[in-house]
């Protein structure tokens, strides 16, 4: 699927649409994505800052989606675990930038080539427009060659 089409579809996905999360850009080669979480009355918490669940949700699927696009149907690519470290209150719109390096894809392919499971952590910082870090999200991905390809 073309990246522009995928971006439009993801922006219409109800969990993102109603949470104020938008995929701003997705490179044609699926190596970079930029996401924004707009601060709205319906995604503020009791103290009027970004709701922690929305901060996690804005970062949740992207590492898996980018890697899955590159490894394709020969591999399982699943989220295994995730953590979030709240660094500062989010009192404005926040942004996340995902950049997948080709060397990481090469490492994943090589590590999974013999059919073993591969567990790898990926980090993304969630920042304000001025660059202040609001949270750091870590996602652990499970990658494994599918049985028919082992």
Quick structural overview:
Pfam families: DUF4442. This protein has 150 residues and is an alpha+beta fold.
Set down the secondary structure blueprint.
Elements: H1 3-12, H2 14-17, E1 21-26, E2 32-37, H3 52-59, H4 62-71, E3 75-86, E4 94-99, H5 102-112, E5 118-128, E6 133-145
Give an overview of the whole structure.
The model has no long low-confidence stretch (mean pLDDT 96). Strand 5 and strand 6 form a beta hairpin. Helices cover 29% and strands 36% of the residues. The protein has 150 residues and is α+β, with helices and mostly antiparallel strands. It starts with a helix and ends in a 5-residue tail after the last strand. It has a six-stranded antiparallel beta sheet. The longest helix is centred in the C-terminal third of the chain and has 11 residues, at 102-112. The protein has five helices and six strands.
């Amino acid at each position: 699927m073309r990246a522009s089409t995928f971006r439009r579809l993801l922006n219409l996905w109800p969990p993102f649409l109603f949470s104020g999360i938008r995929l701003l850009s997705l490179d044609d080669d699926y190596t970079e994505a930029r996401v924004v979480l707009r601060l709205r009355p319906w995604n503020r918490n009791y103290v009027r800052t970004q709701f922690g669940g929305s901060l996690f949700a804005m970062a949740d699927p992207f590492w898996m989606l980018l890697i899955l696009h590159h490894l394709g149907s020969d591999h399982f690519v699943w989220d295994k675990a995730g953590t979030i470290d709240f660094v500062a209150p989010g009192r404005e719109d926040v942004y996340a930038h995902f950049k997948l390096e080709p060397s990481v894809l090469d490492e994943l392919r090589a590590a999974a080539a013999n059919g073993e499971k591969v567990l790898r952590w990926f980090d993304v910082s969630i920042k304000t427009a001025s660059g202040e870090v609001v949270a750091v999200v870590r996602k652990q991905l499970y990658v494994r060659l599918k049985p028919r390809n082992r």
